[in-house]
Amino acid sequence: MIRPRHLAVAWFLMMPFSATGCSSDNTSIVATPPPPAGLRFERDPATVPVVSSGTAGWPIFPTDPGIIADSDGYHLFYCSYFCNAGGEYYYSWSAGDLGACNIMDVVTGIGYAFSDDSGRTWEFRGRPVLLPGEESWQCGDLETPHVAIVGDRLLLLYSATGIHSGEPFPQRYQVGAATLDLNGASIRQRLLVDDADFVARSEPLLPYDTGATNFDNNTQEPSVVVNDDGNLEVFYVGVGLSRADLPPEVPGQDIVSVGLARAVFTPDLEPLELPSGYLLAEANITEVKRFDGAYHVFATIGTAGEFHREERIVLYRSHDGVTFFGPFDLLLPEAEFDAWGLMAPTLVVEDDQLVMFYSGWSREDGPCFPEPFHAGIRFGRPSEGDTCIHGAIGRAVAVRP
Description:
Tachylectin-2, Chain A, five-stranded mixed β-sheet, mainly beta, 1 helix, single chain, 401 residues
């Protein structure tokens, strides 16, 4: 039976690290001081996600949220399976016509939703805002979206897989960029009312290195900070592999290093500064925010278990972008919907609070592709034995220190 291809976000956490570890001479982590005073995140709501999955009206398998806020409300960009509904890809089951949404014909793309109540409830756009492209480097999966407003444009950064040397290159990512002209309108107007699409660059913004073992054999999980000069500091996770020209699942492949790197671009995405190594070792599935005079790296760490099991969300802080303090634990698996593990934090910085969204995964017994299809079924991702992983997006809030 044909199965939808799996979301392969941060695949390297499912593999053992090699003996070389993941340190770098370019990184600096000092002894961990107490966490910032008063920084304590609580789930809100406490026991249920704000985005569920796998049933009619919800995304099929949402993960990797990226949130941006403006005067209209909160804007969610996420990656998920999108199923072929009569020739167009759609975010969910169709409750009125289940047969129109073929779960056996899916792609992994970027979706959008809008909230006018600080992320508690969401209005979903049916079509994705970005699908895999015709170019060989991004014809596979699109994941880990991050969005920023740059002038009168919306900039979308993402991770993409594709083809290398004429063959599929699964779980080998490069950072891509796409833009949407706002034309003086709001994000909600352009994406929900106008039903506009992003236009992707034909070349990766940050290509991977497949020639030799290096800190950027994979480039993935980007986020952007607009600095005081108006230029774009693009932070991303780089992965070093022992066999740089091969996919991760080949025999003998080892993870040599994982860490956070930074490149600097003009607002028109012309490179100003390219990285030579990591700023911070071991950070994974990150989002970088700059506020209160410091860089805040919200990251995922945990065991090298199956499918992100027992992962948690932490914070590193730096006043200069060179010396980092941390990690400070922010959120551990606890609620039923994130009991398997949680990852991929994204933050809205309000005047008086920090609002975090994240991917939470749970596991259930039973088939992941129930047949026959009906309105009450729930699609999941196969796990060990006769069990399924289900994706969701949680919300947590902290008083701003």
